[in-house]
């Protein structure tokens, strides 16, 4: 007997070593596949739908794979940026057409500035509302509503007759920029912390690209419409141009409804099933509005995104009036500022994620500080290029090329600062992510109103001098980064707990209150319908199953007192009925109990196979792996195979 036990023990040790090596190989293979965007582990959501991308424990994607639009992560990503792109395109569609709109409606420079401020200022309040909407009913529906409702004032732009109507329509269309908050909140709940900076920055940057595309495209759209539908009638041609942004709004709004609020489903479905805690508007408002970091980021974002909105409104007119370029060429050159969004905002997210991995939150803050300070420097350099010249000398100075280069570099740092800001936003308050996103986003639009009013609204102000003043304000505001602080991680100049018990989150959420993206799998397992009960939990190591099976086989072969061997198979037919305890039935439906008991009748030797154990775990999501093994051994089964047969 001793010799047999030693052989079994030695065989088990050999098998365990081989299995450990095999597991290491499999883990490396999984890691390789996941780095390349493959869900090699076959992880599914709480209703059994397999994810297209690798995910973390919260089912958030761990990679950004822009070449696919698969549900739920990449579908949400593409719909989020496309929805924001549509609103950016429509809001700034009038800007490159102003040389035609101004004489048609008799708009003065002051009225044009007011219309520009209305287009970006009207959304401030609605961005705050959108934050609350994202936290309570989901960013997806907020985005769709924003797009569909604002289709009407875009069509209204075709019928305006004076400056007042023009200002009102631009203000109503500008409300759609609240879609930015929905865009960032939606992406934030779909991607894991290590890459959320890149995902948010890319979605925001591609959305902001609408500003560059509209400056580039609308003059050509105007020419095409005039030549095809209104020969010689400039007034009719610019009005008909607004069919394009209207159709873009309507189509994207409908497409948005095909997405999913969260990786595991839509908000109302998850709340009804018990998988998600119902959001409370009073909690998210109190928590979101009482976070000091959120308000600091609000100001900082006003001097990056707000500056972008201001420059987008001014750039085409600047090249047309100061450098004497044609409307078409002025719009094309002005589009360089917006086109930097194609990659520059993503650079800000990448830099923030990279420094965040190495230095934590201080690294993210320094990334933002440096980007925003350089933004201000290049804004000043842009203005200094022509500041000392008389206006009539500028067209002959051949400085347009230099200004375009400086404008492009200036734009790169503007977008990087924006990306760096929203790489930090998801770390501010998970309980009120939407509200904080709304506060910061509203700060961006408020920043545009302030910078336009302070530097560009005066009829006597020179645009190049205004660039210099705005650049100095940007550099000064970047110093607010020094005040950002997280108790557990510190800030740019302070270490963790450097301020003692001070917490920038002045009002804490109630104990146990989760964020808008928190899914409780255990609660869902108890309350959901049978079709929604399957879930992929933690992967069980194969070596643990081998160990358990081998120990059981050894003990099953031990001799009884009368010299006979005890058979583990004897009670197999009767044991399952003894396992129908109240505890088991409390987590499984009657159908699932039958399936689970059928699985529990498997022998420990059969349970060594990972697929069998996985199948059993899927049928019993409320039971731990150890409990499953214990019940399986109690159920018994054939033991005619040794541990050495595993490999």
Cα-based radius of gyration, to the nearest Å:
31 Å
N-to-C span:
25 Å
Form type: elongated
Helix count equals 30
Structural class: mainly alpha
Describe the protein in words.
With 647 residues, the protein is mainly alpha-helical. It contains 30 helices and two strands. A two-stranded antiparallel sheet has the order 1-2. A hairpin with a 3-residue loop joins strand 1 and strand 2.
Brief digest:
This protein is mainly alpha-helical and 647 residues long.
Task: List the SSEs and their pairings.
Blueprint (H helix, E strand, L loop, with lengths): L1 H34 L37 H19 L6 H8 L3 H13 L1 H14 L2 H11 L1 H6 L6 H12 L4 H10 L4 H37 L4 H7 L2 H14 L10 H7 L7 H9 L2 H11 L2 H18 L4 H13 L4 H16 L1 H24 L15 H25 L8 H24 L6 H16 L6 E2 L3 E2 L29 H7 L14 H15 L18 H4 L3 H4 L4 H11 L3 H4 L2 H10 L5 H11 L12
Helix pairs in contact: 1-24, 2-6, 2-9, 2-10, 2-12, 4-8, 4-21, 5-6, 5-9, 5-21, 6-9, 6-12, 9-10, 9-21, 10-11, 10-17, 10-18, 10-20, 14-21, 15-21, 16-17, 16-20, 16-21, 17-20, 18-19, 18-20, 19-20, 19-22, 27-29
Give the key terms.
single chain; 647 residues; mainly alpha; two-stranded antiparallel sheet; 2 strands; 64% helix; disordered C terminus
